[in-house]
Amino acid sequence: MIKIDTGLLDKTSAKTVTSPRRRMNHNFHAAYTDTLQRMLNAMEPLSYIQPHKHEDPDKVEVFFSLRGRILVVEFDEQGKITDHIVLDPLAGNFGAEIPARTFHTIVALDPGTVAYEVKDGPYSPIDDKNFASWAPKEGAEDAKKYLENLLAEIGITA
């Protein structure tokens, strides 16, 4: 049995402090070749994940908030927001499923945020994500500004 408790969430969250990306995964799947990828995704506010989609091969992705609030955003092909939700278990918003071929990103809104993430596998760094050309790359100078503008457009202050 794999147990997901406060200790595991705390241990995974603690690693975000020293991570340049301000996030850290804790994988439950045994190998990247597994057909179902399951993990904790611990994130801190303003950790930027470039909008992307999963296609060729198509993959569905699901996020559940275990701790903190997580903004999940879907976009059209031009980068216009088509839908969003703030996952917050205390408000009754527990999870979101992203269909294959749908541009999306997630943003931690609270320190110590942890998501349980499930995604079709296998994982291959070569073709796992198709990044949006209309959004800055991770680590780019304008990534923080893009993220701040995204939050402002939805009406969330960072």
Question: If you had to describe this structure to a student in words, what would you say it looks like?
Answer:
This protein is mostly beta strands and 158 residues long. The chain has one domain: Jelly Rolls, CATH 2.60.120.10. It contains two helices and ten strands. The strands form three sheets. Strands 1-2-9-4-7 form a five-stranded antiparallel sheet, with helices on one face. The longest helix has 12 residues. It is globular and about 45 Å long. It starts with 5 loop residues before the first helix and ends with a helix. The mean pLDDT is 94.
Features:
mainly beta, five-stranded antiparallel β-sheet, about 160 residues, 2 helices, Jelly Rolls
CATH topology: Jelly Rolls
Mass-distribution shape: globular
Give the strand order of the largest sheet, numbering strands 1, 2, ... along the chain. Answer: 1-2-9-4-7
Task: Spell out the helices and strands N to C.
Answer: HEEEEEEEEEEH
- Summing up helix and strand content along with how strands pair, one would put the structural category as mainly beta
Distance between the termini: 38 Å
Estimated share of beta-strand residues: 25-35%
Q: Characterize the biggest β-sheet.
A: 5 strands, antiparallel
Per DSSP, the total helix count is 2
Report the CATH superfamily: Jelly Rolls
Work out the radius of gyration.
15 Å
- Count of spatially separate domains: 1
Number of strands: 10
CATH class: Mainly Beta
Write the topology of this structure.
Elements: H1 6-14, E1 23-27, E2 36-43, E3 52-53, E4 61-67, E5 70-75, E6 81-87, E7 95-98, E8 103-108, E9 113-120, E10 130-131, H2 143-154
Antiparallel strand pairs: 1-2, 2-9, 3-10, 4-7, 4-9, 5-6, 5-8
